[in-house]
Amino acid sequence: MKSQSELQKFKLSTQLSMLGRDPEQQSGFVNAPVYRGSTVVYKSCDDIRHKRARFSYGTSGTPTIENLENAWSTLCDAAGTVISPSGLGALALALFSVTRAGDHILVTDSVYRPTRKFCNTLLVKYGVSVTYYDPLIGGDIERLLQNNTRAILLECPGSQSFEIQDIGAIVAVAKKYAISTIIDNTWATPIFFKAHAHGIDLSVEAGTKYLGGHSDLLMGLVSATASHWPALRETYDAMAMLPGAEDCFLALRGLRTLHLRVQEAQSRGLEMARWLKRQPEVSKVLHPAFEECPGHENWKKYFTGSTGLFSIVLDRRFDQQNVEQMLDNMHVFAMGFSWGGFESLIIPFDCAEYRTATTWDPQGMTLRIQIGLEDIDDLKNDLRQGLMRLHH
């Protein structure tokens, strides 16, 4: 396996073809084998006494897991990576690694709803207080700090509502007070946003989405800077929150085409968003690359691209019944809560019921759309027919 310094002389797509595999150690086979196991055997009493082995037990990892950890660390320019069975699990690992009872954290009001639930239940239960903040607050986040603030959680763009945060301004405040920063970077992936290069301490990715790319695995990854890596690894080892071997194999396979797929997602997402913007039934498109998207200037400042997930606001004359008539009769788009796979998805949503620091009032019914790999004309036709059903 090539070292990180050796890989850095190559461009991204070449790196992705090489990461996490070593044919010389794999009897010449291109891809690494899948290791499944719990028990590690030792040659002597002295070896087992000192746990003198690459892996001491299944919960300390396997070559399959290590291959993906190393690959992701290189891609993210990180000191280390841990992998969990879900994106939410990864967020939990990140938060547990930087908090203890009596601490306070700041969380963007636009966060993924299951993350909010985790913060409001388990973290609070174990003595960590939570304050939610306006995702567009920027450097003014300083006024929300408390003496015991230990971490700031960003999600960029915001889940469903797509606000782009001023990452640099928030990181600058955090560093001034030695506060840890965590970001959910699932939408952009490390292809379009290098979190650690922008000063983020812990970057979380739901590998379920674009890394897997085929809607057939659940996975979360957390990469860390050198200062935060020991605590993250200690938390991971204490919880033994390991992924499955087959899921790691699928993630490594997805890694090879990640660059191509997110570029295609960007192209298709932009084409469909521009098309929807021209439809009379749509009052607004919430896509980070569009000027009307909250925080668009921040997207231009920090990101190198966009992917295939965005939201739209329908004209205010349409109600819940109209939306149901539209969505219940789609032929290509399906309704489902995930994204990042090959299939196009569409869901209705309403952030108003759980926002606490901001008011969600888009002046119309809202839909989140994931653009998959189907024919673009088929996607447009399906949406066009759906938009026409809004009138019935």
UniProtKB/TrEMBL annotation:
Recorded catalytic reaction(s): these are:
L,L-cystathionine + H2O = L-homocysteine + pyruvate + NH4(+); an S-substituted L-cysteine + H2O = a thiol + pyruvate + NH4(+)
Report the record's Gene Ontology biological process terms. Answer: L-cysteine catabolic process to pyruvate; transsulfuration
Residues modified as N6-(pyridoxal phosphate)lysine? 209
Which prosthetic group or cofactor does it need? pyridoxal 5'-phosphate
Q: Which Pfam families match?
A: Cys_Met_Meta_PP
The GO molecular function terms of this record are:
cysteine-S-conjugate beta-lyase activity; pyridoxal phosphate binding
InterPro entries cross-referenced by the UniProt entry: Cys/Met-Metab_PyrdxlP-dep_enz, Cys_b_lyase_bac, Cys_met_metab_PP, PyrdxlP-dep_Trfase, PyrdxlP-dep_Trfase_major, PyrdxlP-dep_Trfase_small
Spell out where the chain crosses the membrane.
none
**What pathway or pathways are given for this protein in its record?**
Amino-acid biosynthesis; L-methionine biosynthesis via de novo pathway; L-homocysteine from L-cystathionine: step 1/1
Domain of life assignment: Bacteria
Which EC number applies? 4.4.1.8
| Cross-referenced SUPFAM superfamilies | PLP-dependent transferases
Q: Which key words are in the record?
A: Lyase, Pyridoxal phosphate
Q: What class of enzyme is it?
A: lyase
Q: Describe the family membership recorded for this protein in Swiss-Prot or TrEMBL.
A: Belongs to the trans-sulfuration enzymes family.
Please report the name of this protein according to its UniProt entry: Cystathionine beta-lyase
Q: What is the lineage of its organism?
A: Bacteria, Pseudomonadati, Pseudomonadota, Gammaproteobacteria, Enterobacterales
Give me the gene this protein comes from.
metC
